């Protein structure tokens, strides 16, 4: 690899000069990122970044001073690089993911690979194939283990060990995880305990010792366990002592407390501190309008100094400026005004930081901040081919729904002027614990640059606006949630952002469901719909797919859709297609386990029986949504063509 990162970027930018002549929007927006996930080593001497080689994710290492490539990590066969962590100045541990000819979306099966920055000493550390003899030509192996590994503490100690949790393989993933020290050079493990609850998130203290475990029981409730410093036993906290969201962030540097994101005795999610000695639980920060959507911690991970809030555009609140890192972060925010800014990694001495910045009109870009020099240098654009394209800006909006509830969303106006104001209502998935955010979205930009205004609605039931707002969507999938989406569409028409009779609705997962359900509730409002990976018969949810495999799946479904057969039928689009006037494009992956293709087939049969028009797009090698760039491009082209056929431009 005798090239520099700057040379690579120069070459990659060449197609952008021809962008206006090409204007092949589906190909542009379906293209995978050129570079992604930059992280700096603890000593600041090297950088790692994900690159795509022959359609697969690999890891490449650079000298931080010269930006010359010094090594790489590329998994064999159908495997590729997933999440990764620097565990020491020279070594990285990687989660391996795997695709196949029959399933393009890579899946994580618990395997960990370790490698030095120069590509040496590669070893499959952990996983069900760690003992096999055929994983790449230069990778050493060890004894296999039938379990999924998750990171707990990824800074190697003086014995070259990190801490992981290892969950034994099962269909639902609900078996109790073992907590282990893992040698990052030879793969040897040492058991240090067991998780006390299924689906546990384990948080370690400053010494790397597991201190907190949070999981979900069969009743779909949080369970929280704490370990004393002197005692190896887990002690469960009573559920009255914390809120429904309890999510541990970090044990404090003095090992006496725990930072938590929670909604204890309040509606919105804020930051709390739990003290181990007396069990006190104190609110540190809560916004007045929205949940805290992200936190920024110190390099050692044991103090929280900043929060991200998403009331429309992203904003940031600092808890303290006592830490040097907090002061630096405040200055960096001023260097990227109005943008979404995150820290991916920092050196141990806080002298160098890797940042990723993005906006509604700019795909993520990575930067290296040098604190001593006070400079910020760009490392790479994730999508350099878009640099010469003037993208459409996104504005936060709000409106009153049918019952007076205030609902928020986003409006992206197409730069293509049209008196017909063709509009697409793009519905997010979930529907719970999920919401739309302001920022770069390739699907939104594809639609806007193709000539369509785009409305996104954070309907009741969406996450981010408090527990009460989310719970208003429970057992209202087919009614109040859809009426919020319809109210948003009517608001856009009344405000002159859309034109009556020239609106299409589309979405993926719950958005695919809503596409059909909303069009049956308001048949004259939507001319067409694009339904992707949707659930169209709610009675199937408890019988098929991956939700029933989860130990809490039945309790979750009871909470959010209930068991009233009459209501489930009324809320299932397969039983309502006789009311439908909109033409549909139905797209689905045959390997989908979240919304099995049987949902789409039942909808297809119902449409045939009712004599309704539709188009069918099926992918044999995709699961829940479309991952492979070639499939994304096929889908984007189909959407462009379908919308052009049904909306006046």
Description:
It is a single chain. The chain is an alpha+beta fold and 649 residues long. The chain has a domain at 394-646: Alpha/Beta hydrolase fold, catalytic domain (Rossmann fold, 3-Layer(aba) Sandwich), CATH 3.40.50. Helix content is 18%, strand content 36%. The chain has twelve helices and 35 strands. An eight-stranded mixed β-sheet has the order 28-29-31-30-32-33-34-35, sandwiched between helices. The longest helix is centred in the C-terminal third of the chain and has 18 residues, at 629-646. It is globular and about 70 Å long. The protein starts with a helix and ends with a helix.
Largest sheet: 8 strands, mixed
Rounded radius of gyration (Å) = 25 Å
CATH class of the domain at 394-646: Alpha Beta
**Intertermini distance:** 49 Å
Beta-strand segment tally: 35
Instruction: Give the strand order of the largest sheet, numbering strands 1, 2, ... along the chain.
Output: 28-29-31-30-32-33-34-35
- The percentage of residues in β strands lies in 35-45%
Helix content: 10-25%
- Shape by Cα distribution: globular
The H-level CATH homologous superfamily of the domain at 394-646, spelled out, is: Alpha/Beta hydrolase fold, catalytic domain
């Amino acid at each position: 690899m005798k090239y520099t990162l700057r040379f690579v970027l120069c070459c990659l930018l060449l197609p952008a000069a021809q962008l206006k002549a090409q204007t092949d929007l589906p190909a542009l927006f379906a293209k995978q990122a050129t570079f992604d996930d930059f992280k700096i080593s603890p000593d600041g001497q090297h950088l790692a970044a994900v690159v795509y080689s022959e359609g697969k994710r690999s890891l490449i290492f650079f000298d931080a001073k010269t930006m010359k490539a010094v090594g790489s990590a590329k998994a064999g066969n159908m495997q590729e690089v997933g999440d990764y962590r620097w565990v020491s100045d020279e070594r990285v541990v990687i989660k391996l993911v795997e695709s196949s000819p029959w399933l393009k979306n890579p899946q994580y099966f618990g395997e960990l690979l370790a490698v030095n920055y120069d590509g040496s000493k590669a070893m499959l550390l952990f996983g069900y194939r760690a003992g096999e003899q055929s994983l790449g030509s230069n990778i050493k192996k060890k004894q296999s283990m039938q379990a999924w590994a998750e990171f707990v503490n990824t800074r190697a100690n003086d014995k070259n060990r990190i801490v992981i949790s290892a969950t034994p393989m099962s269909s639902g993933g609900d078996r109790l995880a073992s907590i282990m020290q893992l040698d990052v050079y030879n793969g040897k493990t040492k058991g240090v305990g067991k998780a006390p609850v299924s689906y546990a998130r384990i948080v370690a203290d400053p010494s790397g010792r597991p201190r907190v475990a949070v999981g979900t029981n069969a009743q779909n409730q949080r369970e929280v366990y704490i370990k004393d410093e002197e005692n190896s036993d887990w002690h469960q906290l009573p559920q009255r002592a914390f809120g429904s969201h309890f999510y541990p962030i970090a044990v404090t540097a003095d090992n006496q407390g725990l930072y938590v994101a929670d909604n204890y005795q309040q509606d919105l999610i804020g930051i709390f501190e739990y003290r181990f000695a007396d069990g006190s639980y104190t609110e540190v920060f809560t916004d007045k309008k929205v949940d805290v959507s992200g936190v920024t911690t110190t390099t050692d991970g044991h103090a929280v100094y900043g929060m991200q809030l998403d009331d429309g555009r992203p904003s940031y609140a600092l808890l303290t400026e006592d830490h040097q890192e907090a002061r630096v972060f405040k200055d960096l925010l001023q260097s990227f005004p109005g943008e979404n800014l995150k820290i991916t990694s920092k050196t141990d001495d806080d002298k160098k930081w890797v940042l990723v910045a993005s906006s509604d009109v700019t795909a993520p870009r990575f930067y290296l901040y040098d604190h001593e020099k006070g400079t910020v240098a760009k490392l790479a654009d994730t999508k350099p081919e878009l640099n010469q394209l003037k993208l459409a800006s996104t504005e936060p909006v709000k409106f009153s729904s049918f019952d007076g509830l205030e609902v928020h969303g986003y409006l992206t106006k197409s730069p293509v002027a049209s008196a017909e104001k063709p509009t697409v209502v793009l519905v997010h998935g979930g529907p719970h614990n999920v919401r739309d955010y302001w920022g770069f979205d390739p699907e939104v930009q594809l639609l806007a640059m193709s000539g369509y205004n785009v409305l996104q609605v954070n309907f009741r039931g969406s996450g981010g606006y408090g527990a009460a707002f989310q719970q208003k969507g429970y057992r209202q999938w087919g009614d109040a949630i859809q009426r919020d989406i319809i109210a948003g569409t009517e608001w856009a028409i009344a405000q002159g952002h859309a034109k009556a009779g020239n609106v299409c609705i589309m979405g993926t997962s719950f958005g695919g469901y809503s596409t059909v359900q909303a069009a049956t509730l308001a048949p004259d409002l939507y001319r067409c719909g694009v339904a992707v990976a949707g659930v169209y018969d709610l009675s199937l949810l408890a019988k098929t797919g991956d939700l029933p495999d989860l130990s809490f799946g039945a309790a979750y479904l009871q909470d959010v859709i209930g068991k009233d057969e009459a209501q489930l039928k009324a809320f299932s689009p397969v039983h309502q297609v006789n009311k439908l006037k909109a033409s549909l494009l139905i797209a689905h992956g045959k390997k989908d386990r979240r919304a099995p293709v049987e949902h789409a087939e039942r909808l297809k049969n119902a449409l045939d029986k009712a004599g309704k028009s539709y188009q069918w797009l099926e992918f044999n090698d995709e699961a829940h949504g479309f991952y492979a760039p070639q499939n994304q491009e096929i889908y984007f082209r189909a959407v462009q063509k379908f919308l052009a056929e049904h909306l006046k431009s």
